[in-house]
Description:
The chain folds into three domains: 17-131, Fumarate Reductase Iron-sulfur Protein, Chain B, domain 2 (Orthogonal Bundle); 145-240 and 405-471, 3-Layer(bba) Sandwich (FAD/NAD(P)-binding domain); 245-402, 3-Layer(bba) Sandwich (FAD/NAD(P)-binding domain), CATH 3.50.50.60. Helix content is 33%, strand content 16%. Helix 2 crosses helix 8 (117-131). Strand 1 (145-149), helix 9 and strand 2 (168-172) form a beta-alpha-beta unit. The radius of gyration is 23 Å and the shape is globular. The chain is an alpha/beta fold. The strands form four sheets. Strands 3-2-1-4-16 form a five-stranded parallel beta sheet. A five-stranded parallel beta sheet has the order 6-14-7-8-9. It binds flavin-adenine dinucleotide. Flavin-adenine dinucleotide (FAD) binds at residues 93-95, 149-155, 172-175, 180-181, 185-186, 215-217, 237-239, 241, 263, 293-294, 297, 407, 409-410, 442-444, 448-452, 454. Residues 93-95, 149-155, 172-175, 180-181, 185-186, 215-217, 237-239, 241, 263, 293-294, 297, 407, 409-410, 442-444, 448-452, 454 line the site of flavin-adenine dinucleotide (FAD).
Amino acid sequence: xxxxxxxxxxxxxxxxxxxxxxxxxxxxxxxxxxxxxxxxxxxxxxxxxxxxxxxxxxxxxxxxxxxxxxxxxxxxxxxxxxxxxxxxxxxxxxxxxxxxxxxxxxxxxxxxxxxxxxxxxxxxxxxxxxxxxxxxxxxxxxxxxxxxxxxxxxxxxxxxxxxxxxxxxxxxxxxxxxxxxxxxxxxxxxxxxxxxxxxxxxxxxxxxxxxxxxxxxxxxxxxxxxxxxxxxxxxxxxxxxxxxxxxxxxxxxxxxxxxxxxxxxxxxxxxxxxxxxxxxxxxxxxxxxxxxxxxxxxxxxxxxxxxxxxxxxxxxxxxxxxxxxxxxxxxxxxxxxxxxxxxxxxxxxxxxxxxxxxxxxxxxxxxxxxxxxxxxxxxxxxxxxxxxxxxxxxxxxxxxxxxxxxxxxxxxxxxxxxxxxxxxxxxxxxxxxxxxxxxxxxxxxxxxxxxxxxxxxxxxxxxxxxxxxxxx
Length: 472
Ligand SMILES: Cc1cc2nc3c(=O)[nH]c(=O)nc-3n(C[C@H](O)[C@H](O)[C@H](O)COP(=O)(O)OP(=O)(O)OC[C@H]3O[C@@H](n4cnc5c(N)ncnc54)[C@H](O)[C@@H]3O)c2cc1C
């Protein structure tokens, strides 16, 4: 094989920023066959395979890349599919720069970029979805039943792995559509919903049952799943969907949203379409508070709905926790970054009283300038307000993207289910909870993390559930 020693990745074709900031179509357009083969030839196929160790589900990366370089795309897909149930999703949203690509030998030398592993994964998965017509194999039942709570990446991965081992698996999902954050949180322009639907259809074709509109802890309890419904094990993959707020004056005003609510309206309920039954505020000026991926998604959504958008973040550029690519895309699309800035109060329209939270609309965000002081416990320099630097950002909508924690519904309705400090469900290294036969993984156990980590946890728990049921 002839190596391509180019120090830079093949660039990802994307929609023009000035066009895409007015539509919801996918930003990144994907490699052509020629670009994929050329990029694959940048892989040195090194013996130590550091990229594999950097992947939370240990995909055989050099092996699949060799197949891409040879133009054997379906064979490449089959290698990835052994370890990942959602390659078209992960190729799009995984933080590869801190995982597989962060460890890539090609990226070590100054001025050199890692192999575009995520871009190749996406190419291979899209190729398979467009060209492979074969239905997944349906494994006969082994006569044992397992319930999965939540249909995000953790639940879907656990369900898929157990079904492949012969278990009869039913996934219970509180919402009316399966997919978790992949459908309600991550916007269409980063992850088209048709891709998630396709992955879920594959699982259903394998025999995984999905019951939507069932809230475990309300409609059915975990205990009832184990007794009345006869499930021998239960996996909790209920995520971390409870939003945080700042606790500042004016948060009850109309025009203040959690990022989760704002994104759910747009993504799940399709409120960005003119014929949607769900309303969404088409604000003139929006402040999104926070600096993570969720803040970038909310800001870029608000921009596409026609607003001037400010990201308000209390630390500096270097500390922004979002993926670099998302920050760059947001900047290209015209999002304004107000860094070292912290909100202190949300102002209300003149005729209303901000202390009566049910009344009034947002009419500005009071902020204070910050400077970075001494490092805190996390090692990051802590932001300190600059006295007297308050100013008003003239906005009519404020979106809080400050992180989320697990919803306490399951832990408050399930006796003996132990939790950690911030309400995460306590698990051991195999995803076992404090209750016999009850397992948990993904954001419900770790707090808000990543798609691939949730998938990895679903895989580990599926193995442990199999061992547990076989040992009985
Ligand atoms: C806006 C946004 C953008 C993100 N961007 C990225 C990104 O680019 N890359 C990345 O790797 N990660 C990203 N993440 C994080 C990632 O999506 C999560 O870490 C991942 O989805 C967690 O998977 P999960 O299966 O644990 O939970 P979730 O995806 O949250 O799924 C949990 C599911 O359980 C359901 N549920 C909850 N309670 C119950 C109940 N009692 N009964 C029945 N069902 C229940 C919920 O409705 C939900 O469908 C993002 C998160 C958000 C919010």
